[in-house]
Amino acid sequence: MLRARVLTAAIAIPILIWLIFRASPLVYDSVILFFTFVSLREMAAMQRVAFSGSTLLTAGGGMVIAVSMLLDHSGAAVSAGLVIALITTLLGTLLTARDMEQSVIGAGQVLFAAVYGGLLLPHLIWIRALSGGAALVFFLLACVMASDAGGYFGGRAFGKRKLWPTVSPNKTVEGAVSSVAGAVAVGVVLNALVVHRFGSFEVVLVTSIISVFAQTGDLAESMIKRAFHAKDSGWILPGHGGVLDRTDSMVLPIVFIYYYAYYYGG
């Protein structure tokens, strides 16, 4: 498993760096939308909603939201996209309803999946559009990866006390602390060499929050997978599972860093 993870990372990271710094907005945005679509399909497949058309409603509603984010960074189009996704889900549920209770529960699952999959990850499009946005995307993803690596290796080396065994039995308190340490260490170096955006105390605070949100997102997806009895969300990334498995720790930090940078980061 570790060997497959390393091999996938060795191939993906150079492509990712090119995509962040060199790809045209059209190519970059298209890649983000593609992975958004895949994550929506993975979420729909995991949920196994008990009415016909649920996958189409999940993917369609989520992509309406994602495309609205691409078209308008002001938020007005996003509000419209959310409303369209809501109305479409309600109409689709009514047209396919057989068991009222299951239909309403299924509609809630579809809406959650559409918003989770369609709204969070596409914030990467908005981050890159900021001043110095490409460097900020690189900084963010590197901190999340460092947080994941710190948690993995720190947990294996020092882990004794379980963090939240009912949600993720393998995670430990020591691993969580190591995650924060890994994110802070990489963030401080990248801020000094690449980003030049945050003050000395600020970068420690920001990277610590990134790590906490990364771990929260990871735990949240573990909870979702346990709820639907799924081991992995998919298979598209060897050693890493599906897109949801790889981005679970990224989506909350992505949203945090966009709004932090937009309002406070200069």
Topology of this protein?
Elements: H1 2-21, H2 25-47, H3 54-71, H4 76-96, H5 100-119, H6 123-129, H7 133-158, E1 162-164, E2 168-172, H8 173-195, H9 200-227, H10 243-247, H11 251-263
Antiparallel strand pairs: 1-2
Helix pairs in contact: 2-3, 2-5, 3-4, 3-5, 4-5, 6-7, 6-11, 7-8, 7-9, 8-9, 9-11
Estimate the global geometry from the Cα principal axes.
globular
Helix content: over 70%
Task: Please report which band the strand proportion falls in: under 5%, 5-15%, 15-25%, 25-35%, 35-45% or over 45%.
Answer: under 5%
The number of distinct structural domains comes to 2
Could you say which structural class the secondary elements and strand pairing correspond to?
mainly alpha
Q: Compute the gyration radius: what is it?
A: 19 Å
Roughly how many Å apart are the termini?
A: 41 Å
